[in-house]
Each structure stands twice: as C-alpha cells, then as structure tokens.
C-alpha cells in the first residue's frame, strides 16, 4: 500500500526523478547534521558555558545574602558586578510572569534548564533579547536582577552553519545535476528517435554518453535496421509475386476471350477474382512503401475522398470537419488510400457512409461510419489481422475480398504512430472505424 502510494506521487519525467535522486540525499544529510551536530553539540557547549557562569551568579547571590541590609548589599554588588560584566539591580521590580524563550532560539531551553539546576531560588529567566540574558533570583533582601551577555552562556548562533550547509548543498546539487543531465540527454535523444520511428519517420541518431547508454543506442539502431530490411523484403516479395502473376493471368484472359462466352464465363469470373486478390496484395505491399511526410491539411484529405466518392455515385456524406485547418505532417497518399478503403468497406456492407475528421492540439482523428451489420466486439481485433475475413459478421453476399482492407488501414495508422479503432456507430448503427494519429 505504501509503495503504491509512493509510486503514484513519484515524478514521471527522467529529469525530475534524477533531481529527486540528487536532492533527497542532500536534504536527508543536512537534517541529520542539524539534529546530531547542531542540536547535541551546541547544547553540550551551552551547558558547559552556563555552568561556568553559574559560579559567578552564585557568588553574587552569596554576596547579597551576606550583607546586613539592602544598601550594604547594593554596595557590595557594585564593587564586583563590573569586573564580572554582570549588571545587577536590587531589589528588582520588573519581574516577568514566566520564562521567555523565542521559538527560533535553539539553545534557550538548555540555558534556562542549566541556570535553574545550578542556581537556587531562581524566579524567572528572560531570553527575549537574543543578545542578553536576564535572570531574577530570590535573596534575603528581595528579588535580585542579573543582566549579562548571551555569548557567555551559549555557543555562537548555528544559523551561519545552516546557511553554509544550504548554500553548499544547493551548489553541489546544481553541479551534480549539470553532469547528470549530460548523461540523460543521450537517453532522451534515443527516446525521441524511437518515437519518430514509431510515427514512420527515420531521424538521424548517433549513440553517445556512457558505455551502457551507447550499447542501448547501438541495439536500437540494429533493431531499426532489421525492421527496415524486413519491411523492404516483405514489400518486394508481395509486389514481385503480385506483379509476376499478372502476366499469366493476362494470357489466360486473352485465351479465354477466344472461346465461347457461355462456356468460359465461370473461368473468367475466376480470373477476375484472382486479379482482385492481386490488387489487394499490391495495396497491402504499398501500405508499407508509403510516401514521404508532407505538410497537409487533414480536412482537405477528407474533402478529396468525399469528392472522389461523389463523382462515382457513392452514398457518402461529410459528417463533420472539426478543429484547426493548419497543415500537419502526414503522408497524404497513404491516408487517402486508407480512407478510400474504409469508405469502400463501409459501402460494401452498408447502404451509406459518413466521413469526418477532428483535429486537436494532441491528436488527429479520421472516422468513417456506416449503417451495415457492424462487427461484434470480440471479433474486431481479428478483423484488423491480415487475410482474415469475418463473413458471418459482415454478410458474405455483399462482396468478396482477401481480408486485407482493414489491415492496410491499420498499417497506415501505425506508420504515422497512430492506431485503428473499431467500434459501433452510435449515429448510423453500423461500424465506426477511426484512425487516431498523435501529433
């Protein structure tokens, strides 16, 4: 329970955590020094100094008590108080009601306790003036007031030591943080390069810093290079196979065109299905070989997709264009291909579709929703996987495919560092597909 509470209130950033690691030990060390050294050492010195002054105070009290009357007591005290540097007043009339110790006085209680323990008949002690000590003592001739310098009973004010500790602690913390920041900077650069790669951008990154950080950076570069080679190999394989198969399919179509139409009609449909599958493979391959990032207005992409759909008579409307029209970094061709796939998928299983976009400071959200049968919640994750067709959920009679439509859209979203979300359309009742991209 305690560890969970600490975890909830721990800083999230690496710089803040590094600062906490630096500052916390310094503060704990200063507190330890303050308690052990200042409190005990200064109290011990104060007790010794006050014990020495108690001897002089007892001598003055004994001198006053030994005089026959008040005048003789005053005369006797006046002869010895100046050499002892103690002001005397007999009888005293300005006695305070209780001992006075300022709350910032670290050794005041020790002074009063030692005075009362070493001198009998102490009435009150006042430390209101931090530079003086005033004590009232009962004598046979009335209250005796003694006033002497605070330096005689207390060690030097420990505030100077506290100030030195705080200043030096802050200085050493700043120096340590400066050096630590140089060690953390390569980690932040590697994190930024990894985040850019997750958004489809390959940024220049050179491992620097400590040996362990350099090793992590080299491992990241090796991983990124392997992923790039794997992606290129997959793209080349799919595009090569799909392209090479078009030649024999073209020869088949040409040969079938020379035969009787009634006899070869089923074979022509098979060839068309194969061509449609090849087109799907090529689209899937092109989803990895995306275009370069460009300054693009998201609303213009939605408008272009709507115009294309309207031109061919598709039942598509724009539901909303929310947010700023400032250009953002996108791959326009890939986004348009993804939106086209979502629109075609919506119209394949529904009678109408709506498309829109919302732009905020933190994210860009494209969406397409339809009035079709939708996809059950427990099958939506499978629907995004390549080569998966959910015919039972999406009405097989509306069309056939290779099961790559949503997978292509998901790949386009991932190359932008985003995600494809599938949910139920609250407006049309069918499927709602959202492409959410972080900015």
From TrEMBL:
<keyword id="KW-0418">Kinase</keyword>
<dbReference type="InterPro" id="IPR003660">
    <property type="entry name" value="HAMP_dom"/>
</dbReference>
<dbReference type="InterPro" id="IPR036097">
    <property type="entry name" value="HisK_dim/P_sf"/>
</dbReference>
<keyword id="KW-0812">Transmembrane</keyword>
<dbReference type="InterPro" id="IPR003594">
    <property type="entry name" value="HATPase_dom"/>
</dbReference>
<keyword id="KW-1133">Transmembrane helix</keyword>
<keyword id="KW-0472">Membrane</keyword>
<keyword id="KW-0808">Transferase</keyword>
<dbReference type="InterPro" id="IPR004358">
    <property type="entry name" value="Sig_transdc_His_kin-like_C"/>
</dbReference>
<keyword id="KW-1003">Cell membrane</keyword>
<keyword id="KW-0067">ATP-binding</keyword>
<feature type="transmembrane region" description="Helical">
    <location>
        <begin position="14"/>
        <end position="38"/>
    </location>
</feature>
<keyword id="KW-0597">Phosphoprotein</keyword>
<dbReference type="Pfam" id="PF00672">
    <property type="entry name" value="HAMP"/>
</dbReference>
<feature type="transmembrane region" description="Helical">
    <location>
        <begin position="161"/>
        <end position="180"/>
    </location>
</feature>
<dbReference type="InterPro" id="IPR036890">
    <property type="entry name" value="HATPase_C_sf"/>
</dbReference>
<keyword id="KW-0902">Two-component regulatory system</keyword>
<protein>
    <recommendedName>
        <fullName>histidine kinase</fullName>
        <ecNumber>2.7.13.3</ecNumber>
    </recommendedName>
</protein>
<dbReference type="Pfam" id="PF02518">
    <property type="entry name" value="HATPase_c"/>
</dbReference>
<dbReference type="InterPro" id="IPR005467">
    <property type="entry name" value="His_kinase_dom"/>
</dbReference>
<feature type="domain" description="HAMP">
    <location>
        <begin position="181"/>
        <end position="232"/>
    </location>
</feature>
<keyword id="KW-0547">Nucleotide-binding</keyword>
<dbReference type="GO" id="GO:0005524">
    <property type="term" value="F:ATP binding"/>
</dbReference>
<feature type="domain" description="Histidine kinase">
    <location>
        <begin position="240"/>
        <end position="439"/>
    </location>
</feature>
<dbReference type="InterPro" id="IPR050980">
    <property type="entry name" value="2C_sensor_his_kinase"/>
</dbReference>
<dbReference type="InterPro" id="IPR003661">
    <property type="entry name" value="HisK_dim/P_dom"/>
</dbReference>
<keyword id="KW-0997">Cell inner membrane</keyword>
<dbReference type="Pfam" id="PF00512">
    <property type="entry name" value="HisKA"/>
</dbReference>
């Amino acid at each position: 329970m305690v560890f969970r509470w600490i975890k909830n209130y721990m800083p999230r950033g690496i710089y803040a955590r590094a600062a906490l690691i630096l500052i916390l030990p310094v503060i704990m060390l200063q507190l330890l020094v303050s308690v052990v050294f200042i409190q005990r050492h200064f109290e011990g010195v104060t007790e010794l100094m006050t014990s020495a002054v108690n001897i002089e105070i007892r001598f003055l009290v004994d001198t006053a008590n030994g005089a026959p009357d008040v005048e003789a007591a005053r005369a006797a005290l006046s002869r010895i108080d100046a050499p002892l540097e103690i002001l005397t007043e007999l009888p005293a009339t300005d006695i305070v009601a209780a001992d006075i110790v300022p709350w910032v006085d670290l050794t005041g209680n020790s002074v009063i306790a030692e005075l009362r323990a070493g001198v009998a008949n102490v009435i009150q002690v006042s430390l209101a003036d931090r530079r003086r000590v005033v004590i009232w003592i009962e004598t046979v001739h009335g209250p005796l007031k003694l006033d002497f310098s605070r330096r005689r009973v207390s060690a030097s004010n420990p505030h100077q030591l506290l100030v030195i500790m705080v200043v030096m602690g802050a200085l050493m913390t700043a120096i340590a943080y400066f050096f630590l920041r140089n060690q953390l900077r390569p980690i932040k650069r590697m994190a930024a390069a990894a985040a850019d790669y997750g958004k489809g951008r390959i940024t220049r990154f050179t491992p620097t810093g400590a040996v362990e950080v350099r090793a992590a950076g080299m491992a990241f570069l090796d991983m990124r290079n392997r992923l790039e080679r794997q992606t290129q190999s997959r793209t080349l394989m799919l595009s090569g196979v799909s392209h090479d198969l078009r030649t024999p399919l073209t020869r088949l179509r040409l040969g079938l065109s020379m035969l009787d139409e009634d006899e070869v009609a089923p074979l022509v449909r098979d060839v068309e299905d194969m061509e449609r599958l090849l087109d799907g493979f090529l689209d899937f391959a092109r989803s990895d070989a995306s275009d370069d990032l460009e300054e693009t207005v998201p609303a213009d992409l939605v408008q272009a997709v709507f115009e294309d759909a309207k031109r061919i008579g598709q039942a598509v409307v724009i539901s909303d264009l929310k947010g700023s029209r400032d250009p953002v970094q996108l791959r326009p061709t890939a986004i348009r291909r993804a939106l086209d796939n979502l629109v075609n998928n919506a119209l394949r299983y529904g009678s109408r579709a709506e498309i829109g976009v919302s732009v905020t400071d933190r994210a860009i959200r494209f969406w397409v929703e339809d009035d079709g049968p939708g996809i059950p919640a427990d099958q939506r994750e499978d629907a995004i996987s390549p080569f998966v067709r959910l015919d039972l959920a999406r009405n097989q009679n509306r069309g056939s495919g290779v099961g790559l439509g949503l997978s292509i859209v998901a790949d386009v979203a991932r190359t932008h560092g985003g995600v494809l979300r599938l949910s139920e359309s609250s407006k049309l009742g069918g499927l709602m597909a959202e492409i959410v991209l972080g900015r």
